[in-house]
Amino acid sequence: MGKVVAVLAAATLAALASTTAHAQQKLVVAGYGGSFEDIMRQDIFPAFGKQHGVELEYVAGNSTNTVARLQAQKSNQQIDVAIIDDGPMYQAIALGFCAPIQGLPKDDLYKTALYKDDKAVALGIVATGIMYNKKFFEEKKWAPPTSWDDLKDPKYKQLLVIPPLNNTYGLHALVQYAREGGGSEKNVDAGFKTFKDKVGPNVLVYEPSPGKMTELFSSGQAVIGVWGSGRAKAFADTGFPVGFVYPREGAYALLSSVCPIAKDKPNPAAQAFIKYLMTPEVQTKLGSSYGYGPVNKKAQTKDNPDVPMPIGERAAKLIVLDWDTVNKNRDDWNKRWTREIER
């Protein structure tokens, strides 16, 4: 009888150990939704999960949503790895949410990809520019857009879509119009005025959702918009007649970035996953599937004529925001945007 009890006790302990081990094998990654989520789930997660014996869970949301989640969960972080845009990433680092990345292969990475104290690293380079429906433009015999000024053209009335200000693409547009009017990140009044008087009348909707954005184009409700090269490339890969333009005044740089979340008991798989994302193989996959300009020098890149990738000279010419100034003022700008633009 004693042997039976001992065997049962051993089996119970083994089951508990197995359950605990299983619980530790889950890695929670927060990142963008839409086509980016599809690529992560289908092309990136499976190989890592198999190699490390890890079950990956994905929490989709835009960058400001993810930072808000980190703030809400700060006493008990559920997220292990966060993938967010460079601006909100600086906020996340300042708020103490990011832990240093161990053993980054810095010699293989472009310097642009690196953050101070290795608290984050860029995952890919995106250009914010103008996306349009090539087929619609050809049928109308309209010339492709070439300038940020084109978005003011009355022929685009109710055909233009721009993400709102809490999205990096919308923020880039506001700063561009501020600069055009003689201002800058330090004085965005001219940007608000241009949106209110000249761009806003053309806007069908200020759309934050990537899925909804592609729906608006697919249904023909929208034919031109401000968006990122990565999103535009993924949309073009579905067969939609996408054109993407780097405006002559300059396209804006967005560094899609990743950091391990600081915790009392950090998930060891978080560090391994970030290093996996930096490998030439994954960087090549993110370039070919999503249109990211790779941050690893050894990644293979193949350009797309409809949606040119932010590589080489194009990447070098991208405009970078003064994020210190932006992040100090962004909450006030968001309130002003709601009050004056999206009423």
TrEMBL record:
One of its GO terms (biological process) is thiamine transport. Transmembrane segments: none annotated. InterPro entries: SBP. Residues 1-23 form the signal peptide. Keywords: Signal. GO terms for cellular component: outer membrane-bounded periplasmic space. The keyword Signal applies. One of its GO terms (molecular function) is thiamine binding. PANTHER family: ABC TRANSPORTER SUBSTRATE-BINDING PROTEIN, THIAMINE-BINDING PERIPLASMIC PROTEIN-RELATED. This is Extracellular substrate-binding protein. It comes from Bordetella ansorpii.
